Amino acid sequence: MNSVQILLDRFWVTRRQDKELYYQIRRDLDTVRKFVQDYPGWRLLQNEQVIRIEKIPAHGEPFMGIQSFTNKLDYCLLCALLIFLEDREENESFLLSELTDRIEIQLKPVCPIDWTIFSNRKSLIRVMQWCEMNGLLILHEGNLDALSNSMK
User: Fold this and answer.
1) What single DSSP character describes residue 64?
2) CB 113 within 8 A of CB 107
3) Could you report the per-residue pLDDT of 99-126, keeping only the tens digit for each?
4) Which residues are within 8 A (CB) of 73 and not within 5 positions of it... i.e. 6 or more apart?
């Protein structure tokens, strides 16, 4: 399959999840970079862990969102979680309490979070499930589905 097509179809290609494909695309980087910059004018982002095309549409449409997210808080929590992960080393473990404390601090000026509210906790579970499904988080202990079911 064409490296450009692969990157257009996926959010990203990670070395951890698909090593062979990651290295195949790295071999084609010059061709991919030229195509991506010349035609749609996007950016190609590449480091030791991931290769992706930064695809920014001219106008946002409702279908472009994350289908499992149900409200704006989900997106706010995702951004806070990504900021939290950015400050950590690759494969560094953390406790859920560390994450929730950091999210509270991060989002306080924008939308204060109260973890005693069921919908806020449910939102965090949706975000963490999406991150786990897309390879951003690896759950070492516990089960998000079990936690989600126990909250119903």
Assistant:
1) G
2) yes
3) 999 999 999 998 899 999 999 999 999 9
4) 111, 119, 120, 123
Cα–Cα distances (Å) from 10 to 29, 52, 66, 69, 150, in that order, read 16, 8, 13, 18, 33
Closest Cα to residue 131, out of 89, 106, 97, 99?
99
Separation of alpha carbons 61 and 117, rounded Å: 30
* Residue 91: partners with Cβ closer than 8 Å, 6 or more residues away: 138
Over residues 7-52, the pLDDT tens digits come to 888 888 888 888 899 899 999 888 888 888 887 778 888 888 888 8
Q: Please state the separation of Cα 76 from the chain's center in Å.
A: 12
Q: Output the pTM of the full model.
A: 0.73
The structure tokens 């997210």 sit at 69
| Backbone φ, ψ for residue 94 (5° rounding) | -150, 160
Which residue matches tokens 């062979």?
A: 20
At 96, which amino acid appears?
L
